[in-house]
Amino acid sequence: MGNYVVKSILGAPGQNCAPISPSSAVWSNTKQAPVQGRSQAKISEEVLAETPNCHGQRKECTLKQIMDQESEIVHDTQSLHSDMQTLVYENYNKFIAGTDTIRKMKNDFKKMEDEMDLLAKNMESITSFSEQISCTLQDTRQKITKLSGVHSLLKRLQFLFKLPAKLKDRMQDGQYAQAVQEYIHARRVLHHYSNMPSFQGIQADCEAIVEELKLKLREQFKSKDDIMEFVDQGSSGFLSDLCLVVASYNDIDDLDSFAMSQLSSFVFGNMERYFQLVQERIEKEQDGGDTAVLVRALDRFHRRLQAMNTLFTHSDFARTGTDIVLRAGRRQCRFHLQTLKIYFSDTLTRVRQTLAAPKLISQDGDSSSSLSELLTSLVLATVEKVKGILQDLLLFSQPDLTFGLKPHFREVFCMDNVREELVVGFFHHLTATARSFCNIGENKAPPALLLLLSKMCLEFEGSSVHYLLSQTDEWFNIEDRSKSGILTTEEEICSNMRTAAQELLNHYVRTQGLSVSQMLRKSVETRDWLHTIEPRTVRAVMKRVVEDIAAVDSQVGALYEEGQRTEHSSDSSRRTHSVSVSRHAYRSNWSTYTPSHLDSSLVTNMQKLFSERIEIFSSVDFSKVSILTGIIKISLKTFLECVRLRTFSRYGLQQIQVDTHYLQLYLWRFVTDENLVHFLLDEILGSAVHRCLEPVLMEPSVVDIICERG
């Protein structure tokens, strides 16, 4: 059997090898010699392929290997062909999309060109109209520009016409420095327009006023009442001469005792008279005088006494001078304390006038905001006034003063006069003034003022007391001596503030409670309960009570926090202003009993047995719900006592039933515990049942309808 040999023509030996492909294979019918050691059948199954390698060598492969390689080459060719088709399709899609985009861009550019042409036409039209308007208003614009310039000039010169009157006012108020500054500011303008007759009159008036000012200033320089001139004359004249006399005696040798006694009597007598005159002059200066001038005069006075002490050692005149300075400081503190009292009184007067203004009672929202603003202004203004006075008194403790660093002066002036007598004394005056509004014998204060003063005391207790005392101790270098009992402690002042706030708040609750009670009392006492008609609506006084309580709630809410309430029951939480209580809601215990049950007092006794005692006039907490609870307790207790003194018919009892049910619908939301309202209203209805000649209650559904309609 012949062997087929496949020869691959890959090129000459030594050239690069090329891959084998089916097209490059040449089949040869070359006979091969039999190989020794192999069978003929084995040799017949072998097909030898001579393939040159990269070095010109040939490689022999089997037919199966060649067929496998052919299949692999065919598969690769098909894969490349498929990839080429996919690439062509993708590029074709992109070409189509690009063509669409270019077409769309052409359309957009064409549309944009049309719009730009339209815009250019519009701009040309606007330009044409603008030119027409400018031509039309050219004359008017020139007139307006001219008038504007004249107006600006008149506005700048307007102060000249008011200058003479303003200078006179400055002269009358003693504000000489401001008058001089205003005249200097206007002098150049007056000189510039001095050729005009109208300005000549103004200039003449101003010059006359300035001449009068010069005369007054010269009179002050020549006045003997100026304290600086007084101290300088006393120091340079009297003390200098007295020091020369003492120095002359000290220069004499062997001075006998009689001469020394005569000298001592002479010096003591003259110094005593000098101190008396200085004391009188200082007291006169302190009646509304300038503190800075007073302190400088006291420093000069005290400084010149040091020389006298050096020459005459038989007495400490500097200590006497320090005592005079201390009395001046004490008098200044008392003067400022009186100023603070007057200021606080005037502030309270303004607050009362503001509270009495109609705008505060027109709307609840306006009233609330006005109360909070009044409180802020009252507290801040008072604190700032005290700070201003403390800064004024700081002039006495300047380190460059001869008496400012002396321990005796600092202890007495800073601790006793400034801190205790002025600051602490004003705190005591503030609490005493606030408490005075609680006295029944005083003029009746508006309830809003009581509420405002109560919150003011709480604000001082919370922050203002600590702030002012800390500032005082820091500015005047006062050491903490609270444990020694010398200084009034901050805790003591805060306790007084809180006590005053509590008294004012309790008085406010009683005042508002009695105001509502008066309406309820009159509504019960002035009605004929035996001949009343069947109730068809809630009485107007009950609606007024609810409105007044709501107004008080808004007023108190402007100053105090809500406070804590007990958890409401599910029935109470469903009650609203516009929806009446359903059959599942809380109802009076009396509404579930028949007339036979009403004849017995067992229900009342059982109810009182398991109920706690209610303190009507107890102190309230500093919260809105506690304050409203106190007012409602007083009101309902008055209602209860009035009902106990009347006799009711059947319809009178039913009217009380409707009224109490209406109050029950609305009052529970204002109190800390709704059960308190339920209990008092049950007491009122129960008392009416016992005082009724024919105790028959109305059906609860009818009561609901009447209250909902009311």
From TrEMBL:
Ranges where the Exocyst complex component EXOC2/Sec5 N-terminal domain occurs: 77-228
GO CC aspect terms: cytosol; EARP complex; GARP complex; membrane
Subcellular location: Golgi apparatus, trans-Golgi network
Segments of skewed composition (Basic and acidic residues): 562-574
GO biological process: endocytic recycling; Golgi organization; Golgi vesicle transport; lipid transport; lysosomal transport; protein transport; retrograde transport, endosome to Golgi
Main location: Golgi
The keyword Transport appears for this protein: yes
Keyword Protein transport tagged: yes
UniProt keywords, alphabetically: Golgi apparatus, Lipid transport, Protein transport, Transport
Span list, region Disordered: 561-580
Family: Belongs to the VPS51 family.
PANTHER family the record matches: VACUOLAR PROTEIN SORTING-ASSOCIATED PROTEIN 51 HOMOLOG (PTHR15954:SF4)
UniProt subunit comment: Component of the Golgi-associated retrograde protein (GARP) complex.
Reported function: Acts as component of the GARP complex that is involved in retrograde transport from early and late endosomes to the trans-Golgi network (TGN).
Name of the featured protein: Vacuolar protein sorting-associated protein 51 homolog
Upper lineage: Eukaryota, Metazoa, Ecdysozoa, Arthropoda, Hexapoda
